[in-house]
């Protein structure tokens, strides 16, 4: 892709190709479709949030409280949506966010997402709890395609260090450390259906193949010690003892850019920057962790102000359309991560469905910017928004 974006032409001139009849271009419709077509357990796991799902609803409502104010008679014939984030050049300020256990949705799973992202030059963040190993996902992503690794910081420090070493060797260039999920949130949909893919050994590929994890279990994982290995995974998955004093561990084991995911308070953002982190990701995990937590978009301006130019601020939780991306960028995000929409695309149409979702987002982003009078992400500032009456 050249520096001059033309995502919208691509869609209008070439059509939507192989997934045209199946998948809507209004990506807010994907969830309903997924509910009809996917197995109930897998759908509930993806769509579900914590508690009464009030925070998940608040994430969306926050976007609706902002409206774009389009400007006329500006030359928007030449557009460049490209940005550099955490050391990675990308065609637009869009990143494929980390989602674990994707094989519950479609056999294409993480490799399918990696291939779809690579085709478009969009970076993918691979989850620690991927259903294939990080090496297999890297292979699918391919030589030269941008990829980042998301760390769930294991209680077993040897496992955490080993993950970072493997991720580096497999060509992941930036590290996303998720802080808001040292335990799984209270998720009634999964609890009521007893849907826990990990207990059936899905999403543990990185652990079961890891030498440090195997050492803790007493050897390679076999049918004989599989249940014990799963219990070991449950015991070590997250570490609630972690504090800011532990951050140097990350620097000791990772020399590339690091972003902390799950930041909502400006003071936490400041501490991240003071600790030498390169970025923060404003996120409430899509409302899946603390029900009643503030909407992620409402947290964004305060974090942006606290961080200033000292680090990069990324955003997720609630991104569904190109207009949503414009609003998050206007409120100070350098890039956004898309999550549930591509999971629905994967579940509905595999790799082609993911490609559909990413193309639609890119095209709608570009068209929204162009028709609002903007030619690049740097022009998107708070002044381009008005509060909804
Ligand atoms: C099914 C599912 C699995 C997820 N797994 C991970 C994960 O492994 N690591 C992580 O950092 N975030 C994970 N997330 C959180 C997403 O990265 C992201 O923060 C969140 O989904 C954003 O909200 P949205 O999907 O409503 O936009 C997961 C989210 C979903 C829906
Ligand atoms: O479900 C999630 O949101 C998530 O982040 C997760 C946590 C542990 C294992 C798999 C996914």
UniProtKB/TrEMBL annotation:
Keywords: Flavoprotein, FMN, Monooxygenase, Oxidoreductase. Signal peptide: none annotated. FMN binds at residues 98-100, 127, 150, 178, 261, 283, 316-320. InterPro entries: Aldolase_TIM, Alpha-hydoxy_acid_DH_FMN, FMN-dep_DH, FMN_HAD, FMN_hydac_DH_AS, LMO_FMN. The active site is at residue 285. One of its GO terms (molecular function) is lactate 2-monooxygenase activity. It comes from the Bacteria. Its cofactor is FMN. The keyword GTP-binding does not apply. Its EC number is 1.13.12.4. Residues 19-389 form the FMN hydroxy acid dehydrogenase domain. Glyoxylate binds at residues 45, 152, 187, 285, 288. PANTHER family: FMN-DEPENDENT ALPHA-HYDROXY ACID DEHYDROGENASE PB1A11.03, S -2-HYDROXY-ACID OXIDASE-RELATED. Belongs to the FMN-dependent alpha-hydroxy acid dehydrogenase family. This is Lactate 2-monooxygenase. It comes from Thermomonospora curvata (strain ATCC 19995 / DSM 43183 / JCM 3096 / KCTC 9072 / NBRC 15933 / NCIMB 10081 / Henssen B9).
């Amino acid at each position: 892709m050249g520096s001059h974006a033309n995502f919208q032409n691509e869609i209008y001139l070439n059509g939507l190709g192989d997934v045209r009849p199946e998948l809507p271009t209004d990506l807010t419709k994907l969830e309903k479709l997924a509910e009809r077509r996917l197995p109930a357990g897998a759908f509930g796991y993806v769509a579900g949030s914590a508690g009464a799902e009030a925070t998940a609803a608040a994430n969306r409502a926050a976007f609706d409280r902002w409206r774009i104010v389009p400007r006329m008679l500006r030359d928007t014939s030449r557009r460049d949506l490209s940005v550099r984030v955490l050391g990675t050049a990308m065609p637009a300020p869009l990143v494929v966010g980390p989602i674990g256990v994707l094989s519950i949705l479609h056999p294409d799973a993480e490799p399918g997402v990696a291939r779809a992202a690579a085709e478009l030059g969009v970076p993918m963040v691979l989850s620690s709890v991927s259903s294939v190993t990080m090496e297999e996902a890297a292979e699918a992503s391919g030589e030269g395609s941008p990829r980042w690794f998301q760390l769930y910081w294991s209680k077993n420090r040897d496992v955490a260090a080993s993950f970072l070493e493997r991720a580096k060797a497999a060509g992941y260039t930036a590290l996303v450390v998720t802080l808001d999920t040292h335990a799984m949130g209270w998720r009634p949909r999964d609890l009521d259906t007893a849907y826990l893919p990990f207990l059936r050994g899905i999403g543990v590929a990185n652990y079961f193949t890891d030498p440090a994890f195997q050492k803790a279990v007493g050897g390679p994982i076999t049918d004989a010690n599989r249940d014990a290995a799963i219990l070991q995974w449950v015991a070590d998955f997250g570490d609630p003892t972690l504090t800011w004093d532990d951050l140097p561990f990350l620097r000791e084991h990772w020399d590339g850019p690091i972003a902390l995911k799950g930041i909502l308070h400006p003071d936490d953002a400041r501490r991240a920057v003071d600790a030498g982190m390169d970025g923060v990701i404003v996120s409430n995990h899509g409302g899946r962790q603390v029900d009643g937590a503030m909407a992620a978009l409402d947290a964004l301006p305060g974090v942006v102000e606290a961080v200033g130019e000292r680090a990069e601020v990324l955003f997720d939780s609630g991104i569904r359309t190109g207009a949503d991306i414009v609003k998050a960028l206007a409120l100070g995000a350098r890039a956004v991560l898309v999550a549930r929409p591509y999971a629905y695309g994967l579940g509905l149409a595999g790799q082609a469905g993911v490609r559909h979702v990413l193309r639609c987002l890119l095209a709608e982003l570009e068209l929204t910017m162009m028709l609002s009078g903007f030619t690049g992400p740097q022009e998107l500032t708070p002044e381009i928004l008005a509060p909804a009456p």
